[in-house]
């Protein structure tokens, strides 16, 4: 039974990477883009994978916690460290998404998320302001943090050093 | 050493799926984005992805083959079944996915996305059959189901090594 739960956990991780891929590539492409309609298309790209993203994250988290109990791993440090890294990354990326990408959606005249809820589209800002907001995007540190954190979690889970 | 190579194998699989996820997102986005400008933006997302994904795929394959030798797995059936499943998946996605992208991107670029199938051949008649045209919009779902199913099968073979 434990092996099946680990199987579901690993499958959940791979599906999560699949679901997150669109967002990752979009953030780099957005940095180069000047056409406003193309920016809107790119920003909507991550939205298509949101249901898969949420479901796969839930799957990997629940199966991971279950595997922790079944394998009696909660007394060890590596599992708590992994969980802390995962939560830390999720909080930071969620914050970054609201501050940068939803702000860009707002000035582009798209529906956006603010104040803990969805907001309707407003009138688009002028092109100068939009490009100024776009120029504040920093996809590389996010990608390094995200994939780097994932590699650390993978190392902790495979080698269980402490 | 085996565990380190296994680590590289799993990490490269994760990287590959990250890049491939962009392709999957574009496949679904193409169902809704109908203007040439929007499709051009999506086409460029794929260009960026296809430049980076091959390195992770190569690392995945090389580390997998290496693990097969290090663990002396080549006499077992599961590893051959995994490779055959991977090859079948790749061919299926190249042909069907390529056809889908050809049709959706034909107005915005002349890059051939899939295999060029000569007219008059059985393959051409199958791929351009009216049934395929009628169900063209369902291709992203079909690709997802086959892809995720294949992935689950390969993962099961590798984790449980049943034969």
Summarize the entry for a quick read:
The complex is a heterodimer of chains A (162) and B (163). Chain A has 162 residues and is mainly alpha-helical.
What is the rounded distance between the termini of chain A?
25 Å
> What would you call the structural class of chain A?
mainly alpha
Mean pLDDT of chain B: 83
Helix content of chain A: over 70%
Low-confidence stretches of chain B: none
Cα-based radius of gyration of chain B, to the nearest Å: 18 Å
| Molecular shape of chain B | globular
Fraction of residues in H or I helices of chain B: over 70%
**How are the strands of the largest sheet of chain A arranged?**
1-2
- Main interface by residue count: A-B, 38 and 38 residues
Question: What is the mean predicted local confidence, pLDDT of chain A?
Answer: 91
- The termini of chain B sit apart by 25 Å
Strand content of chain A: under 5%
Characterize the main sheet of chain B.
Answer: none
What does this structure look like?
The complex is a heterodimer of chains A (162) and B (163). Chain A is mainly alpha-helical. Helices cover 78% and strands 4% of the residues of chain A. Chain A has six helices and two strands; from the N terminus they run ααααββαα. A two-stranded antiparallel ribbon of chain A has the order 1-2. In chain A, helix 1 packs antiparallel against helix 2 (36-48), helix 1 packs antiparallel against helix 3 (50-70) and helix 4 (77-107) packs antiparallel against helix 5. Chain B is mainly alpha-helical. Helices cover 77% and strands 0% of the residues of chain B. Chain B contains six helices and no strands. In chain B, helix 3 (77-105) packs antiparallel against helix 6 (139-160). The two termini of chain B are 25 Å apart. The mean pLDDT of chain B is 83. The interface between A and B is large, with 38 and 38 residues.
